[in-house]
Design brief:
This is Fatty acyl-CoA reductase. Helix 2 links the parallel strand 1 and strand 2. The chain starts with 6 loop residues before the first helix and ends with a helix. The protein is globular. By secondary structure, it is of the alpha/beta class. About 35% of the residues are buried. Strands 3-2-1-4-5 form a 5-stranded parallel sheet, with helices on both faces.
Length: about 220
């Protein structure tokens, strides 16, 4: 029986998709993959155009982050494997062009979904659309990927704050995530804010609530 491959061997020759690569944890993951998995074939990162700055320009800005300095000193062409794709997780098909969709469907075998809105002051509708609906869109798209072996979703330790003791398992939320997503897609922000206290329960903000719903969506 052949030995179980290590992490670098597992990723050798693979194409990977990362959402949220420009965020804090996304940067850490991207640096780790580039530094520790030298034979990874390609890393697609989903990047939305922001304040008129195109995804390619945002990638150039990302490369200048101090985290990547040791990597680029040792491997100046490390980012040649990184391909920015314009999109947004809460859009159908993650907002990808037809050509980019096909590239992902045909080539990717591992997806890391880290994208999230971390604004604790955000309205309920915005948090659910960005985090819960966004996760649902990613799940729907991943179902189309031909060679998918792993989908890794990152949550937060605070999303199950209604529980006194946390075990290593998923938890069913008090409210149906699909019902909440449907309401947020149909009703305006003002109407959702009226419903906010009854929906959130003991959650301190809409961020933790939306992430708890997202966990339930992934667990399905």
């Amino acid at each position: 029986m052949s030995p179980t491959p290590g992490i670098p061997e597992y990723f050798a020759g693979r194409d990977v998709l990362v959402t949220g690569a420009t965020g804090f944890m996304g940067k850490v993951l991207l640096e780790k993959l580039l530094r520790c998995c030298p034979d990874i074939r390609r890393i697609y990162i989903l990047v939305r155009a922001k304040k008129g700055v195109a995804p390619g320009a945002r990638l150039e800005t990302l490369k200048k982050v101090v985290l990547f300095e040791p990597l680029l000193k040792a491997q100046p062409d490390a980012f040649a494997k990184v391909v920015p794709l314009e999109g947004q997780v809460n859009d159908p098909c993650m907002g990808l062009s037809e050509a980019d969709q096909q590239r992902i469907v045909d080539n990717v075998s591992v997806v890391f979904h880290l994208a999230a809105s971390l604004d604790w002051r955000a309205a309920l509708k915005r948090s659910v659309l960005d985090n819960t609906v966004g996760t649902q869109r990613v799940m729907e798209f991943c179902a189309r990927i031909k060679k998918l072996e792993s989908l890794v979703y990152t949550s937060t330790a605070f999303c199950q704050c209604e529980e006194d003791v946390l075990e290593e398992r998923t938890y069913k939320p008090r409210v149906d995530p699909h019902m909440v997503m449907e309401l947020c897609q149909k009703l305006d922000e003002e109407a959702m804010e009226i419903m906010r206290p009854s929906l959130l329960g003991r959650h301190p903000n809409c961020y933790t609530f939306s992430k708890a719903l997202s966990e339930a969506v992934v667990a399905e």
